[in-house]
Amino acid sequence: MKHVFGPVPSRRLGNSLGVDLLAFKACAFDCIYCQLGRTTEQTAERRRFVPPGDVVAEVRQVLDSGVAVDYVTLSGSGEPTLSLDLGRVIHAIKAFSRVPVAVLTNGALLGRPDVRADLAEADLVVPSLDAATQEAFERVNRPCGGLSVADVARGLRDFTLGFTGQVWLEVMVVAGVNDTPDEARAIVRALEGARIDKVQLNTVVRAPAESWAEPVREERLKELAALLEGLAPVEIIGRYAQREHPAPAADARERILATLARRPCGAAELANSLGLHPALVAKLLEELCREARLERVLVGGAAQYRIPPH
Ligand code: SF4
User: Fold this and answer.
1) How far apart are the CA of 64 and the centre of ligand 1, in A?
2) 137 lines ligand 1 (CB under 6 A)
3) 12 against 247, higher pLDDT
């Protein structure tokens, strides 16, 4: 599988089958908290990255295997709305599957009519807006030149008014960067009139692109959540729910490396998502760290593993 990963237990989406329409790592942003590391192709230009037929065939193969999947989630190695095949792939998946399709997006291109048309058949869109003042936007998201947060917020709001599926807004806050009550109030003002079903307030829980991007403390998260209630009910993202699903035990090393190539995670999460015995995962992680194919990092005091940056 080159374009599909998981299903992995997602804190937001249950058992999520990840679909990657991109080449690593294309995005208009270079967020300081990005769990994929720093952006290597910073662009706001849409194009084809991978053959869409191959992606759809892989999704079909996994779903046909009967594995438990709550969402087919377009996310992957960057920003999925950069792919010109987004709408085509969603349409093809909907033609053979009833599993809901979710798209995680940074929202930068939601003002474009072609992107809105591509998202029309999705069941759920999860756009982000981490800041509404240009200064905080540039600090936390480090957008490519010329992107204005006022335009991004306007595009996001207008998108929600024309889209018929669910919209869950994600707000990711980083300690000392975009975690002030004034910033939360600015987000509420910028999105006034938007149709948002819920807000998910998140902080740094996976190894971030910048080691100095720190999680926000719980008391501050609660304070910000109370302000963001002005948009929709707010959920502070907690531990993901676990569910049993079958997974083969073969090729454990390669499957661990493939999962960690997408995003860093901890040993227990790896064991759950890959259906492997925790002791086996611990042993393989130790081996891979010794061989320098993985590195161990501490995030909020908890160990996570990732592919070392080159
Ligand atoms: S977190 Fe999302 S929007 Fe930010 S750099 Fe990473 S892929 Fe892009």
Assistant:
1) 30
2) no
3) 12
